[in-house]
Design a protein that fits this description.
This is Protein translocase subunit SecY. The chain is built from 20 helices and 5 strands. By secondary structure, the protein is mostly helical. It has a 3-stranded antiparallel β-sheet. The protein has a two-stranded antiparallel sheet with strand order 2-3.
Length: 460
């Protein structure tokens, strides 16, 4: 990996290992304040997981479990939402929608900053503007919760929730079709989304780490044991060991890339204001190899689900042949193991990576801020040359980052084509990116808490 780090100029962090790590972990539980925060976080996580198994009103829990047992491979149309809900979506529980409405609302509000100047103004106002944007995100989350819960209940009533007609196999999933029953289910699931949003904010305020991210982490990690157990049951023991080996290798690669960054040195000139001297220090601008995170994977998955959704609502009547375009979509854009689907998925991820990085990192704004405070990059003139240099570095480092995202996202599809273990392959796609990213960020926060009290932490 030395030639890669040399070419990109990246530098990964290191962790304390061996006995030092165990001593650091012991210090966590010997610190009352930190122990209390971790206990509070674990308590909220336990409540979140408990709600994932409580069925919504008028849902036949027995029939739902029968359908789950008969359909181990969930429909690709609901795979992403079911992943982020920890399996609660297909359980039709009170937390069925999970954190997905909040994620969608956050992405929409962030994208609207480019379209609506008022949102960009609020973003630059500081804490007060951020509070207003957060409030808008909450309102949009509730609206999306109403929309998604209505869609979910409609699909469950039609018997197509598991990608097939479940009425004959498992019986009715919803026991009451009256309008008041449907309204109560919509209110319950939307309220569940609001409670999850409150859980996340409580963890952020009184616990450890980012609350929303930790809830997503919990939802995905909760499915790992079940996925590995299903692989061990349905495949050979050799395939199970191969999945574990590939998973460890992928996890090591993801950790390496997620911690890697290109550090652009910045120097600040000395300024004398009154009797005080400001500036004169050296720092750097950290540009991560994967600046977009998991957002491009979510964008690409959602966009590729649209043709399947349109085709599902244009199914022919019994005895009639489906339309030609519906057949083409079912053959090429629904099957994850088809080469055309993989190619489109990869290209969309690469394109969305460049798009998301372009709207979240503005080289001209960074260059103007550096010039305002007397900062400059050694060998580069301040102003426009600095912006052009930052744009050049960003474009150069985003290419391997986008390819890395595309390859990681294709791992479950490759597993499906190779051994038929797509739905049960947990070490790829959005799941492994979120697991590693949230895990590393939480460890960093715990490390900073330890350094405040003991001057030593988990990182070195």
């Amino acid at each position: 990996m030395n030639w890669v780090t040399g070419f990109l100029g990246i530098k990964p962090h290191t962790y304390a290992g061996g006995p030092l790590l165990f001593k650091a972990v012991a210090r966590i539980f010997r610190t009352p304040d930190l122990r209390r925060k971790i206990g509070f976080t674990l308590g909220i996580v336990a409540l979140f997981r408990l709600g994932s198994f409580i069925p919504a009103p008028f849902v036949d829990f027995g029939n739902v479990q029968t359908c789950l047992a008969a359909n181990q491979n969930t429909s690709g149309l609901y795979e992403l939402v079911n992943l982020f809900s920890g399996g609660a979506l297909l359980q039709l529980s009170i937390f069925a929608l999970g954190i997905m409405p909040y994620i969608t609302a956050s992405i929409i509000v962030q994208l609207l900053r480019v379209v609506i100047p008022h949102f960009e103004t609020l973003y630059k106002e500081g804490q007060s503007g951020q509070s207003k944007l957060t409030q808008y995100t909450r309102y949009l989350t509730i609206a999306l919760g109403i929309l998604q819960s209505t869609t979910l209940i409609t699909v469950a009533r039609s018997g197509a929730l598991f990608g097939t007609s479940t009425v004959a196999e498992c019986g009715q999933l919803i026991t009451n079709d009256a309008w008041y029953a449907i309204l109560l289910m919509v209110i319950t699931m939307t309220a569940g989304t609001g409670v999850i949003m409150w859980f996340g904010e409580m963890i952020t305020e009184r616990g450890i780490g980012n609350g929303m991210s930790l809830l997503i982490f919990t939802s995905i990690a909760a499915r790992f044991p079940e996925s590995l157990w299903l692989i061990a049951q349905t495949k050979s023991f050799e395939i199970f060991l191969l999945v574990i080996a590939v998973g460890l290798a992928v996890m090591a690669l993801v950790v390496f890339v997620e911690l890697s960054q290109r550090r652009i040195p910045v120097q600040y000139a000395k300024r004398v204001v009154g009797r005080r001297t400001y500036g004169g220090n050296n720092t750097y601008i950290p540009i991560k190899v994967n600046m977009a995170g998991v957002v491009p994977v979510i964008f690409a998955s959602s966009l590729l689900y649209l043709p399947a959704l349109i085709a599902q609502f244009n199914q022919p009547a019994p005895g009639e042949a489906p339309a030609g375009w519906v057949t083409w979509i079912n053959n090429y854009l629904v099957r994850g193991d088809h080469p055309l689907y993989m190619l489109l998925y990869f290209l969309l991820i690469v394109g969305f990576t460049y798009f998301y990085v372009a709207i979240t990192f503005n080289p001209e704004e960074v260059a103007d801020n550096m010039k305002k405070f007397g900062g400059f990059i050694p060998g580069i003139r301040a102003g426009r040359p600095t912006a052009e240099y930052l744009d050049y570095v960003l474009t150069r480092i985003t290419l391997p980052g986008s390819i890395y995202l595309g390859l990681i996202a294709l791992l479950p599809l490759i597993a499906l084509a190779a051994v038929g273990a797509n739905q049960n392959f947990p070490f790829g796609g959005a799941s492994i990116l979120i697991i590693v990213g949230v895990g590393l960020e939480t460890v960093k926060q715990i490390d900073s808490q330890l350094q405040q009290r003991h001057y030593e932490g988990l990182l070195r």
